[in-house]
């Protein structure tokens, strides 16, 4: 700063410079409009990552100051992303639409979800929270059966042994159910609805057992985690099980008063166990989100959420560029999860939830751009 220069002096210079930057930006966007028209005429793809990387290197590579080098790179990355969005918009206006699947990406719009006379599968044994979710969504008289593993749910749908599956995906306190995101990506099944089930964990024992008798407790790892405060105070040995209902079944089969299960009150009733304590989970607002999955790509006109997954190149700014498609089209993202890609160290697959319906032009525009720019994109459901 020159001697005697004030903040107001510098701000005046900034105010003089900003209109020039705006004018240059608008000229660049006009060039992107013309570029979009040319690419449409010549059948060229909008997204050219190799050229963008060369451009970023050209504008920033000769700068010695590290801060300025990174800042210029980030600035031009954003400018090129906005230019790409403008090209997509131009092509949409000239061609009528931007996606290649009738505006629905292969999904069929339906007026209602028909599950009369359907077969419904959940993971675990009778008394599991999956059964509770299934009965709440489909009704207690529905044709509901259980399978051993979560992957069996997807196979039941794939091979036609079930019409719908009920699968937990996340808990409000314990987070995601490990592995179930990968199953959504690996199988050609689709989310058609969701249901939230309040969790009320109970301490179950064989009849006659007292609190002072207990030395070991069985339950699913997430349920054990959700009851951390209660269990740490008790000081019992904790034994993880594949499912809460499996834990309840083991306690009744062993008949050992020193062993207890953490499961639902429904499980206790089914297996004839005594409810020694109710609501032992740390948080009373504990809730598990279950997905309703089918083997047909359908969505309701009133659906309000879309789940998708994709992979991006392992380089700086890739995810930022992809998510910009939501911002530019004013689509709200409500969740993002990253999961490691098997056999690819430090590479990740992203699972995203957004608000909207496949009938929305803004949603279709954002998704069409993501299909072009990301890798292994898949819409998991609109529900």
- First-residue to last-residue Cα separation: 58 Å
The helix/strand order is HHHEEHEHEEHEEEHHEHEHEEEEHEEHE
Number of helices: 12
Radius of gyration: 27 Å
Fold topology:
Layout: H1 7-42, H2 49-60, H3 66-95, E1 108-110, E2 119-123, H4 129-138, E3 143-147, H5 150-158, E4 164-171, E5 175-176, H6 180-186, E6 190-198, E7 202-205, E8 216-219, H7 221-226, H8 228-234, E9 237-240, H9 244-254, E10 259-263, H10 265-271, E11 274-277, E12 287-294, E13 298-300, E14 305-311, H11 318-328, E15 333-340, E16 348-355, H12 361-373, E17 375-382
Helix pairs in contact: 1-3, 2-3, 3-11, 11-12
Structural overview:
This protein is of the alpha/beta class and 383 residues long. 42% of the residues lie in helices and 25% in strands. The chain is built from 12 helices and 17 strands. The strands form 4 sheets. Strands 2, 3, 4, 5, 6 and 12 form a 6-stranded mixed sheet that branches. The chain has a 5-stranded mixed sheet with strand order 9-8-10-7-11. A 4-stranded antiparallel sheet has the order 15-16-14-17, sandwiched between helices. Helix 1 (7-42) crosses helix 3 and helix 11 packs antiparallel against helix 12 (361-373). Mean pLDDT is 93; it is low at 98-102.
């Amino acid at each position: 700063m020159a001697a005697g220069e004030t903040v107001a002096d510098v701000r005046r210079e900034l105010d003089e410079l900003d209109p020039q930057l705006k004018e240059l930006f608008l000229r660049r966007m006009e060039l992107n409009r013309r570029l979009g028209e040319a690419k449409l005429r010549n059948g060229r793809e909008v997204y050219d990552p190799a050229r963008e990387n060369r451009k970023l290197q050209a504008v920033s590579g000769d700068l010695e100051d590290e801060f300025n080098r990174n800042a210029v790179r980030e600035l031009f990355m954003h400018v090129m992303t906005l230019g790409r969005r403008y090209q997509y918009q131009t092509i949409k206006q000239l061609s009528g639409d931007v996606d290649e699947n009738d505006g629905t990406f292969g999904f069929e719009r339906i007026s209602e979800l028909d599950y009369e006379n359907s077969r419904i599968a959940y993971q675990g044994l009778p008394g599991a929270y999956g059964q509770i979710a299934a009965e709440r969504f489909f009704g207690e008289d529905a044709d509901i059966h259980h399978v051993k593993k979560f992957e069996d749910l997807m196979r039941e749908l794939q091979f036609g042994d079930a019409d719908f599956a009920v699968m937990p995906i996340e808990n409000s306190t314990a987070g995601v159910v490990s592995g179930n995101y990968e199953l959504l990506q690996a199988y050609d099944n689709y989310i058609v609805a969701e249901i939230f089930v309040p969790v009320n964990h109970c301490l179950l024992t064989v009849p006659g057992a007292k609190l002072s008798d207990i030395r070991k407790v069985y339950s699913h790892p997430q349920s054990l985690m959700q009851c951390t405060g209660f269990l740490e105070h008790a000081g019992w040995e904790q034994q993880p099980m594949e499912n809460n209902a499996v834990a309840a079944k083991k306690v009744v089969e062993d008949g050992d008063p020193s062993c207890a299960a953490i499961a639902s009150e429904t499980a206790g009733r089914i297996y004839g166990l005594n409810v020694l304590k109710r609501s032992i989970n740390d948080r009373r607002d504990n809730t598990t989100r279950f997905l309703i999955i089918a083997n047909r790509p359908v969505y309701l006109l009133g659906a309000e959420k879309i789940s998708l997954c994709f992979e991006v190149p392992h380089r700086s700014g890739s995810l930022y560029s992809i998510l910009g498609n939501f911002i530019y089209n004013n689509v709200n993202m409500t969740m993002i999860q990253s999961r490691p890609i098997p056999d690819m160290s430090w590479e990740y697959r992203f699972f995203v939830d957004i608000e909207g319906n496949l009938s929305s032009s803004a949603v279709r525009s954002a998704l069409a751009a993501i299909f072009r720019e990301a890798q292994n994109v898949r819409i998991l459901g609109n529900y």
